[in-house]
Structure formats: C-alpha cells, structure tokens
Amino acid sequence: MAIFLLGAFFRFNDLEGVPPEMTSDHMEKLLDSQRVVDGDRDVFFTNNGGREAFQMYVVAGLVRFFGQDFSFDTLKLATILEGLLTIGMSYWLGVTLAGERNRSLGIALGLALAALIAVSSWHIMLSRLALRIVLTPLTTILVTIFLIRAMRHNHRLDFIWVGFWLGAGIYFYQANRMLPLLVVAGTTLAIVAALPHWRRMLTYAVNLALAAWLAFVIFLPMYRYGQEFPEDYWNRTRGRLFGENAFERLNPATGALERYEPNTREQIERFIDDFDLFRENYIDALEMYSWAGDGAWISNGQGRPALDPITNGLFLLGCLAWGVLFIRQRDPTYLLVPVGIMIMLLPSALTLAYQIENPSFTRTSGTLPFVLLLAGYPLALLTTWGSRVLRQHWVGVGISVLIVIPLLFFAAGHNFENYFRTYRDAYAASWRPYSEIAAPLREFAQDEGSYGNAFMVAYPHWLDHRILGTVAGDIRWNNGLVTRDELYLMLLRNEGTPYQYDPALPMFIMYNRADDETRHWVMERFPGAVEYMQVAGQGLHDFNYVIIPPGTDWLLALLRERSMGVGCLDGC
Fold first, then answer.
1. Tell me: the pLDDT tens digits for 372-395?
2. How far apart are CA 169 and CA 418, in angstroms?
3. Residue 14, phi then psi, degrees to nearest 5
C-alpha cells in the first residue's frame, strides 16, 4: 500500500503543471474520443498517422460516465490510472517469476519491482504523458505473467490468457505487435527444456497454437481493417521503418510517381540493404538505459538516460546476478527477462528512416518491466539474504530494509528532480504556452462575446487552433483562419450552427505579433477596433488581439469591396 501511495503521489503531484500543455498529438486523441462519444465505433483511427482505438474509448468513458470534460487533464487521468494499475501488476510479475521456488524472494522481488516503477521518472513520464503508450508496459507484464505460468506448467488456461492479452494488446499500442515474438521465443525455450519428452513437447505446440488462434480471433476486426486499408494500417510502422515515400513507381498514364503497396519480398530486401543502420540503432537503443537517452523534449529532458544513477547501478549489478541465477537453477523462464529486452527494443531500433528518433522512451517502453526487474533483483536478494545470514527472520529483514529504503529514497529524489524540474523545463521551453494564449479568448467568449464571434488568424509555425479552442473551453471551436481573407467565408460556413456570428456582440480576432500585414488589415477594416498586446511564455510567444465593437458596418464595407451578393446574416 505504501508503494502504491508513493506511485500515486508521483503521478498526481502538480498534475496541471507537468506536462504543462497539450500538443497536436494530444488534440488528435481528444477529437477521436469525442467521435466515440458522438457515436463512432472505429477499431483504428486513421488521422495523424493512424492509432489504435482502445485509449480513445477509455477517455470517452471518463467523459460520458464520470463527468470529465474533453481536456488535457482527462487524458492525463486515463493514463495515470493505467500507470497505477501497472504498478500493481508488476508486483504479481515478481512473485510469479521468483516466488514459485522461493516465496520470500518472489515477494521481495515483486515489492522491489513495484517500488522502482513507482519512482521511475521513465514510467512517471509515460503515466502522465496522456498518450496510449503507457499501456505497453502493462500489456508486456500481463503477457509475461501468463507466459511464465504456461512455460512452467503447460496448462491450457495459461496459454488462453496469453492469447487473450496478445490479441487485446493489438488495440493498445503498436509496440505490442512485437509481443508475439516473445511468446514464440518463450514457448520454444520451454519445448527445448522438455526434450526428450515428446508428448510434453507436443502439448506445448498445441497450446501455443490455441493461444495464437484466440489472439487472432480477437485481432480479427483489426485484421479486416488492415486488409481493407493496408496503407492506413501500416502507415506509421512502415513510414518509420522505410520512410514515407520509400515505395513509389512511375504511373505510365500520368507520368507521375505514385505510392504502392510493397510485397513482403520487397520489404525484406529493403531491410537487408539498411541492416547497417539497424545495427547502429540497436546499439544506441541499448545505451539508453545508462548512457544517452531519448532526445525528444516531449518524453525526456536534456537527453538523460532512462535510469537514474542508483537504479542504473542496481540494473548493471542485477544483470550479473540474474545470469548467476539462471546458471544455478536452469529455469528457462528466467531467460524471458533478457530476451524480452532484446525483442521489445525492436520498435525503436527499427526506426531506420528517422534515426534521430532512436532511442525512444516510448517505443522501448515494453522493456521497462524487464529492466527494472533486473534492477530490483539485487534489492530482493539483499532482503532475503539478510534474514538468512542472521538466522533471525525479522531482524534480518529489518536490517536489510534499513539499507534498501535509503537506496530507494535517493533514487526517488533523482527521479523527482529529473521529471518535475528538468523534464518540465525542457517541455515548457520547447512548446507553446496555450493556457496563457487562450486566456483572452476564454474570457471574451464567456463574458462579453461568444465563441462564434472569436477568430484566430494563422501564422507559420504558430498555433494549432484546435488546441487553442479546447484550452479556451470549447473543443468544437473551429474559427481558425488559414488566411485573414477567409473571415467572410467562415461567417457563411457558421450560419445556422452554434457558432453563427452575432452582430449584436463584439468580435475578437487574434493574430501573431510578427504578422504586420494582418495587423494593418484588421485596423483598416474594423473602425473602432481596440488592440491589445499580450505577453506569453516569458516574451517568447507574444501575440496581439483586437476587440471590435458590435455592428455590421465592417461587413457591409467588405461586401462592397468584393461586390459580392450574399444571403443575409442574422441582424443584417
């Protein structure tokens, strides 16, 4: 319970402040969740490169059944709950792996693993990032638990659970597509260990086939989607592996290059050609735990390693100790830990077209349970050896705990500093302060004006109007103008909707401070407009907005200028 509460503290502390703002990726998730609430029942969402659907249903459930709104905090709440569930399941993993032979060691390993996950800045980031990636460690843990049981006992029910979580994981995150390799590797190890008992070996093979069948049955809706829309389904995976336009050919009829669906042989040949890149990527991915981590500001601050110095030392020591454990006990399930790391690194190492994205703390998140399990093993040994050496169980445990707790305390301190300061500062410096920028829009729409009377003029590399509207209080607000000349067309488009222009209310137009052309355009066409200069992001994201008095004189002048006849707007 203490470990769970510690994990909850790290995940709920300063919830609004870290991470501070939504990105366009988060906005896509909110919009997809809104579509679910509105009645869509997709298994795969194609926008923004394509994404698995489960997380959208979780967020939609929080909105529909628990009174949450469509906001960044709701996205965070969903992933935090999944992160806390992962902490609980990690204890079960430790007990399952080591507790059958030595119950005390299994309990100690489960507690150590849960504690390290609870304070890990890597997992804290995943839990609070508000993206579906946090489901990967959870799925990996669940598959591994039942795979361990299946390898040891060859019970059909355990294989059924393996198949269930394999199939379900396909709807969670794309990195879970590597988990079948872990299951095949684990079952192969069990079959080899069963030699020369052919009947037992055959039972393993039959049970594995049953697990594969169940996984495929659960996967069928996604499989059908992939067959009907292969480019959409494989777009993100193939794009990272080979590049967005890797497979193109000339269309004789048009003389233009067109993308096409490559066959398996073509993809294998392309991978062989790029094998040197894969080897470099794999080495870089292996180094991320101890040397140089993820370089993306959205998932890491200053490129720090995935493990803090204390946990990294325990991890390196645990690698040696785990090797000794396997040599002494010859339990093939112990090999799942290093094999799991090697396999679940692949989603990052296979990013051959964008090597700058490797290593990735998100794509390698399936390795997190195995890495922290190795780091937790020395702590588990310390507590069990203490009671054995001193021959007085509680005295030994007490002394061991007095050693373990300071180690966890210092590890927690490092991770707190890394996430709540280094990561927060890197994120804030690299993204836009939407909360500050949206404040005048929210105040206008909810006070003297309306959302229908508020507009934003786009500027290169500036704002996502969807985020702006959501942070300002209305996820459906769509009054972002690609160019200032679209204002009139937007008024027409909004007629008869909740965002219809009301000339009896003031108008609000926001634009980038560097956009002098829009400023002159606004001041020339809107007599009486009052301009405000707003400071945001410590002066790095300043912007201007104007509030225009009620009336339609500006619109009539615009119509005369364009010599256009239109249907009357309300109040014309």
1. 999 999 999 988 876 666 555 565
2. 30
3. 50, 50
